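Structure tokens
________________
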Amino acid sequence: MSSRVRADACPGVFATHDAADGPLARVRLPGGVVTADRLRALATCAEDLGDGDVHLTSRANVQLRGVRRPGLAARLTEAGLLPSPSHERVRNVLASPLSGVRGGLADVRGLSTTLDRELCARPSLAELPGRFLFGFDDGRGDVVGTDVCWRAVGPMTGVVLLAGADSGWLVSRDDAVSALLTVAETFARTRGSAWRIGELDDPSALLPDGPREAPRERPTRIDPTVGRIQRDDGGEAVGVAPRFGQLTAAQLRTLADFGDAVVTPWRSVLLPGGADVERLHAAGLSTDPATAELSACIGAPGCAKSLADVRSDAATLVADGERVHVSGCARRCGRPSGAHRDVVAEPGGYRVDGRWTPASELADALARKGPS
């Protein structure tokens, strides 16, 4: 059992993070789903109250930085983005972003919305840590690294995963939301100082009594969410990769013109209904999958803990077919959950996959394939 000695400081709307560039507010988007109207509302909030941009996160949420003017909570509530003030920091839900669009064993669309509604209706779950994460995986294994996840093993059946591990508890799709909330309630009641299920000595103690199958290892894959994507119904979806997951208010409104969207855990945005790609490019929005391979934390001067202006340094890099994440300090904020090249700022340079290199040689260090 982990023993935490400090309070959970995960930011939200009411409890913002005091960053070097001003208060940072995180807005939860359960399942990454956001309607066109809410995209426009976020754009207006960023312009009127923040630094003018909307920043995507690795949990498929969004952040507003430099929020120095009042009124954000009221605007988000009016837009339907803040349904429960008491639960706003615990509405953390990932879902396979391509579900119902292309591939997958089951369609998990709608499950995040149902869980969010029922989560907010249970007062005890407001006490969950802000880092606790729910997941609905359509079978491909792209969002299994959560605290508690329903992973499809067929169109209407799935298995419950605890901290990414198969528990052997088979649950129907219709009962998936109830199963995940049952686990969460037990965790909230018994967690002690733990923030994540993986910190418990025996995560299986969170499961209700009942029959279990033998746990199995299942393959995982992350399918491309950027570019032109042929839908299973013969139509076309389009995914965009904002540079470092940062969107201007104008770009957000351009996305909204093509309907509802899905923010992915890889800081891309999927437009399931398709889009005019030339118009996206004219707005400065990339549909090149290579753009999504390179990510970076906010770095200096936005973060006082950062040892470098990592986004300026990263802007000159090429990922070249490998995921690369550049961090300003050892906390590695925003790093992807899957395999990636690890680039961390240190005084005078960077450590690339564990090997120190001067900042001037960063591109050459990344050109060496694989860890050194």
